[in-house]
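Worked example 3. Consider a protein that binds uracil.
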Amino acid sequence: MERLQKILAQAGVASRRKCEEMILAGLVEVNEEKVTTLGVKADPAVDVITVNGRRIRSENKLYLMLNKPKGVITSASDPQGRKVVADFLPGIKERVYPVGRLDYDTEGLLLLTNDGEFANLLTHPSHHVPKTYHATVKGTVHGTALEKLQSGIKLEDGMTSPAEVEYHDINLDKNETTISITIYEGRNRQVRRMFEAVGHKVIKLKRIKFGDIGLQQLGRGKFRHLHPTEVQELLGSARKTHKVHKK
Ligand code: URA
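Given these inputs, the predicted complex is written out as structure tokens:
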């Protein structure tokens, strides 16, 4: 339960002071009952709060991008006391949850939100939103392996759908190859298992793109808010790819 003027201000109605004036002016109703005194509390998740007859948004929707470091788990808390993604979101009071997962050892672009509908759209298996990774593997990756990754690999949970792959870097001194791989699914440890199936152990995995949104210059362990146009772009790519793959 929170004071009404605080809820109104958090929902973006106006400043807290202005919201107090609105309450005193009789513009605010909670569950169809006019409130004209300050100090009344409500629960924005449960109560229907209106200003001038219009319902307020129950909570601020947040859309964040984190450059997750490796050695961090993608969950809200960890009984074993390991670092969790919430440790990297200073100042964020809302409960946000990750849009899909990244393994403990995987780094890179992780989206977080408190908008369940957005998260569902982007992670639903039938929506096939592309995710791009840089996978650094041991050894030289030959064209035949790339072709297999491209056309689909038989894993224990079934064939993978076609991926897009290209060489990103070849380090002969270290005997390592970095491949840029885009997949349209989100199975558990999928990229690692795909490379293992073609004989290459992944030694570093970093997600650099989700839909059309890239990690760009965001530093390791840093987060930023998505721009509203980025949120729309992501929703667009979920809807677009959904249609394409439904044909
Ligand atoms: N594929 C993996 O193997 N790990 C991840 O974290 C993401 C995709």
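Take a moment to read the result before moving on. The CA atoms of residues 213 and 230 lie 7 Å apart. The longest helix spans residues 228-246.
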